[in-house]
Structures are given as C-alpha cells and as structure tokens.
Design the sequence.
C-alpha cells in the first residue's frame, strides 16, 4: 500500500509542478540547456572520415586477402582501370 501511496503523491506533485510552471511567465521557467561536447560540424567530419577509412580498409581486405593480390595495389590507379575494363568488357 505504501508504494501505491508514494506513486499517487508523486503524481500529485507532478501535476502541481505543471500547474505552477504554466502560471509562471515564459522567462521565469527554467529551460534545460544541452551542451554538446562535440559540435555537429565536427561530428559530420568524423563520420565522413570513418566512412573513407572503412571503404579503403574494406577494399584492401577484399583485394589483398580475399582476392589474393597485394593489399597496397588497391590504391593504384592501374588496378582500378583494370577492374573497370573487366566490368565494361562486352
């Protein structure tokens, strides 16, 4: 029974707080200010860098380990022109 009474008291106090805040002017109400540790523009840059790193690591693993080639060759232009020629071959 005591738990139920505590919940009812908490609900009453929440309702009272809402009524009190509604009666106060907008400037008197306290707003919670969220401080971001990492700005949004920096988050976008970090995500873009992580995408580039994961794409290059995936290409190196795919070409070097799975494909049986040298992992460093994936960063050469000749390798990609050869791959494109194989795909576009009629």
Sequence:
């Amino acid at each position: 029974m005591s738990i139920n009474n505590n919940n009812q008291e908490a609900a009453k106090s929440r309702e009272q707080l809402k009524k009190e805040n509604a009666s106060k002017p907008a400037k008197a109400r306290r707003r919670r200010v969220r401080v971001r540790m990492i700005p949004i523009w920096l988050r976008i840059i970090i995500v873009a860098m992580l995408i580039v790193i994961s794409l290059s690591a995936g290409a190196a693993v795919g070409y070097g380990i799975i494909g049986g080639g040298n992992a460093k060759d994936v960063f050469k232009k000749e390798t990609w022109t050869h791959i494109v020629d194989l795909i576009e071959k009629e």
In short: The first helix runs from residue 2 to 23. The mean pLDDT is 81. The chain has one domain: 2-88.
